[in-house]
Amino acid sequence: MKVVIAGASGFVGQLLQENLKDDFELIALGRSIPSTALSPKIQWRSCDLFSLLQVEQALEGADVGIYLVHSMLPSATLTQSSFEDSDLLLADNFARAAKKAGLKRIIYLGGLVPKGKEISQHLRSRQEVERALGSYGTPVTTLRAGLILGPQGSSFQMLYILVKRLPVMICPEWTRTLTQCIAAPDIVELIRYCIQNEDTTGHTYDLGSPEVLSYRQLMATLSEEMGLKRLMFSVPFFSPGLSRLWVQLITGGSRNLVAPLVESLRHEMVVRDPALLKLYGRPLIGVREALRRCLVQIKPTLRSSTRERTKLLRGRAEVRSIQRLPRPQGKSAEWVANEYFRWLPHFLKPIVSVQPGQEAGLWIFRLIFLPFPLLILKYSAERSTSDRQLFYIQGGLLARRRQSPHSRLEFREVLDHQVVLAAIHEFRPALPWLIYKYTQALLHLWVMSSFRRNLLKKCTGSSELATN
After folding, report:
1. Per-residue pLDDT averaged across 34-58, rounded?
2. pTM
3. CATH among 3.30.450.40, 3.40.50.720, 3.30.465.10, 2.60.40.420 for 2-312
C-alpha cells in the first residue's frame, strides 16, 4: 500500500515516517527535500501544496493520503491572507488532486471541537479543512486531537518555555479551561490503526489521554517533572491580546503562530466520543509519562525557527494574496473571473482599462496615459474549469522581468461551491519592495474589498429574486 504524507516535515510527520517506513511504501511531500531525508524506504517528492498541478503530480500512484497541514505561518515575503483562507485553499488542492489520483481515502489530523456555536478562528478553520477535504468524494477519516505532547510540537514548546522561564506565573482565566492532551507516539499509532483498518473510513473520532486537566494543572505537573517550584496566582479575567503578547514575549514564537492558539484556549477541549479509543483497545500514555518522554528529548526551536523562516521568506521577495469572496447564487468561478475583468475598469474609470489582447486568452491591464501595459495575464484553458479559472502573470510594468513561471492569479469555488477564493501566487513586483508594500499591495486589498462588496450586492439581488 502506498501512503502519501502531506506535512511530512512537521514533527508528527517525521514520527510517522519512522513508524510506517518498514510496512508501507511511503511518499513524503515537502516544498524542499530536507538534507536529513536519507532513508531509501521513503520517497520524497518536492511539492508546493499551493500549486494544484504539483499536488496532482505528487499524489500519483498513492492509495491513502495523510493530511497533517496547518498553515498558520506566512508562506511568502508578503502574505495577504488569513491562515483560514490559506488552509482552505491548501485543503481544496489536496482534495481535488486526491479525486484525480483516485485515492481510496484521506486521514486528516484536526482538532477537538468544543460545544457551542461560537468557536475560535483556529478551530473553525480546522472544521472547514475537514469539509474541504471531503468536497470531491474521497472518503475522509478525521482524527480530532487536543494538545499533542511531543518535544518538537510548537504548543508543547510554548508550555515548556513558560514554565522554565517564569518562577512566578500570573494565571488568567484560560488556565482554568479543561483540556485532554495526547502523547505524540499515541497519535502515530492511532493513524497507523486507521490505515490498517478500512472500517474507520469516513468516520470522525475524538482522541485524548484518559486524564482531563486544566491548563494550570498541566503546567503544575510539568513544573514537577522539571523539578521546579512555581508560584501560580489566578486572576479572574481572560484577555487574548495580553495573553498573546505575554506568550510571544516569553517564548519567542511568532504572532502568526501564537495568536490563533491563544484565542482557542478559552474553549474546553475534551473527548466527547471515544469510539476509536475503544476500537483501538490499548491503553494510551498518561500525561505525566508523556511529559517525561518530552523532557528527555526537548530542544526548544521556536525562536530560532521563527528567525530562519523570516530570513528565508525575505530572500524571495514574493507575494501571496488569498481573498475570500461571496458566490452569487447560480454563478460559477468562471462567471466571477469574467465579472472581475468587467467590473475593474468601470470601478477605476477612467484611469485603468482592461482589454483582451490580440493573442487568444490574453488580458491587458493599462493606465490610459501610458503606452505600456501595467500587467499581462494569460488564460490557461487546459488548467481551467468552470469552478476554477487560472491566469498566468506574463509581464507588464508592475511585474518583475524575472517573474516566476508559476506566478498566477486564480478564482476557485470551495466548500461545496459556497464561496470563491481569489488568489495571487508567487508574484514578484517590479517596484522596490517598500514602495510596493505601501502602495500597490494596499491598492490590491482595497480593490478586492470593493469587488467583494460588488459581489455581495449581486448575492442580495439573487436572493431577492429567488424568494419572489
Report:
1. 86
2. 0.92
3. 3.40.50.720
